[in-house]
Amino acid sequence: MSEYNFAYLDEQTKRMIRRAILKGLAVPGYQVPFASREMPMPYGWGTGGVQVSAATLTPEDTLKVIDQGADDTTNAISIRRFFQKTADVEVTERTTEASVIQTRHRIPETELKEGQILVYQVPIPEPLRFLEPSEVETRKMHALEEYGLMHVKLYEDISIHGAIATSYAYPVKVEGRYLMDPSPIPKFDNPKMEMAAIQLFGAGREQRIYALPPYTRVVSLDFEDHPFDPGRADHACELCGAENSYLDEVIVNDRGERMFVCSDTDFCESRLNGNGEGGA
Amino acid sequence: MYVAVKGGEKAIENAHLWLAEERRGDPAVPELGIGQISEQLALAVNRVMAEGSLFDPELAALAIKQSRGDLIEAVFLIRAYRTTLPRFGASLPIETGQMSCVRRISATFKDAPGGQVLGPTFDYTHRLLDFKLAADGFVGEAEQSETPLSDDIPHIAGYLNSEGLIQDEPETDVEPGDLTREPLELPASRDIRLQSLARGDEGFVLGMAYSTQRGYARNHAFVGELRIGRVAVEMDIPELGFSIEIGEIEVTECETVNQFRGSKVEPPQFTRGYGLVMGQSERKSIAMALVDRALRWRELGEDYLGAPVQDEEFVLHHADSIQATGFLEHIKLPHYVDFQSELELVRKLRREAGRNHRPREAAV
């Protein structure tokens, strides 16, 4: 504990990150460049999220870390341990008890409340990156609000496949201004992004932070005649019976039989333990 | 039932213990000392210091030991450690003209003041496995000259410059930027490009440089000068009002002299590429100089030929081994949520495709 400054990063660095977060909150959806540090876990393992969490945590916070919706996936455990070791904060697996939740690829099923902070790990913050590889160009496109390229891509999807062929990291428009990558969450989670909690996005390798203040308008891109469809496996959770949660498909035996279970382990367990839907 | 994702905590712990065991290898074989690594694997240590951006042979040797000889992993350990170090300020520019050289060669002049000093080089060795080395290791002692090398050896490029044959480098008093403290902004200035290349992966920089030699934005380079040696690092101490020497580092410096036929903005003259790498790293410094030169097309009024090495976004965004390896290797982390949504999508698209195709099949 005494070997490290609180939450690993030095105070100057945390201030620099907080300034980027505040700027991000002031301009929702805008990608703020920040001088990302080299962390003791590799790029791609959530260094952006870890830096944002480090700059956000206070000693009184209670931290929850999920990966793929689960608290006990290896990298979630590793990140949770990192903050236990370097910040000595309380940790929890309960969505309702956490003040800061760091996530990779999911938004918890349980509705978040005011005062909570959801920190996303982001691999590629630029929603236009796979249409335009140059950062210089995409920054220009954001400045001019020139998003035609993305609409053309979605239109081509429909003309080729009959549907928009993006199932995760589905692009959203924030407060009618910035096109934003919601990180690789399934599009099932997109509607939840209009929430009471603060949402912070950290991309370490790409050196970007962006943010959504509570109750920000977040619209998944679509067309009038092809409205956004969040999609979901046509099953109920075989453990808790939930019909409104996002499901993992697990291969259970050599015959390749499948089982569908909630990806959000806390949500599922809370329902199993009879703590009411979403473990309130 | 849910075995695959449960028990991760215990698994991580055991994996770490197993890794430690594997790192040590057969306990009957004596353990490797840090000194053995820094003395006998000095070029590996140099590479880790250069790409780790931290001059500390002992820590670099420790990193190599801890990483089981995986140099990118060792660079990563050094970078993560470096993050925790405070930055006190910037040193004065090192004076490579005042280097105490162990090696200094020029490929452009047969002789020049300061002379050609071959130094400890692999260049003219025959690459024959030395089985004697496996047995005892002693290889003899080099004879020492009675007159020590001057540590004031002028740069070769200076001689071309006096004739106006080589492009002048603009002087500036601006403190160079620092990629480790400020986010990379494009277009990047030359100081930032050079820092990025100096930290960049040796293999990547080598490949980029090689591509220019093979015709992708070809710009034939002569090694005007290559020198390796120790230089003093000085820092201004505001309280004292003058600079003091705070230490010494070993660097490799390469200056290339490149053909240039002139452009709309520059007369025909030679141009320069510059490479400076911490430690002894000739390959990297030469490669760096070639890439630096290729990236200068805009400033020299050359054409953009669409070669990867001319594209600073491409080069600077992909040169860093720690960024590259992190993002590459992260795809082994769980992605079942994304994959699940792709599964749903592919099933849905197949259903729809099936519906559209059936009538045609029926008609056949």
Explain what this protein looks like in three dimensions.
- The complex is a heterodimer of chains A (280) and B (364).
- With 280 residues, chain A is of the alpha/beta class.
- Chain A has 6 helices and 12 strands.
- Chain A is globular.
- The two termini of chain A are 33 Å apart.
- Chain B is α+β, with helices and mostly antiparallel strands.
- In chain B, 41% of the residues lie in helices and 13% in strands.
- Chain B has a 4-stranded antiparallel beta sheet with strand order 1-2-3-4.
- The radius of gyration of chain B is 26 Å and the shape is globular.
- Mean pLDDT of chain B is 90; it is low at 1-5.
- At the A-B interface, helix 3 and strand 11 of A face helix 1, helix 5, helix 12 and helix 13 of B.
Instruction: Give the DSSP E fraction of chain A (strand runs of 2 or more residues).
Output: 15-25%
- For the biggest β-sheet of chain B, the strand order reads 1-2-3-4
**Topology order of chain B in helix (H) and strand (E) letters:** HHHHHEHHHHEEEHHHH
Question: What is the molecular shape of chain B?
Answer: globular
The total of helices of chain A stands at: 6
**What's the rounded overall pLDDT mean of chain B?**
90
Radius of gyration of chain A, in Å, reads 19 Å
- Decide which structural class fits the backbone of chain A: alpha/beta
List keywords for this structure.
heterodimer; A: 280 residues; alpha/beta; seven-stranded mixed beta sheet; three-stranded antiparallel beta sheet; globular; B: 364 residues; four-stranded antiparallel beta sheet; disordered N terminus
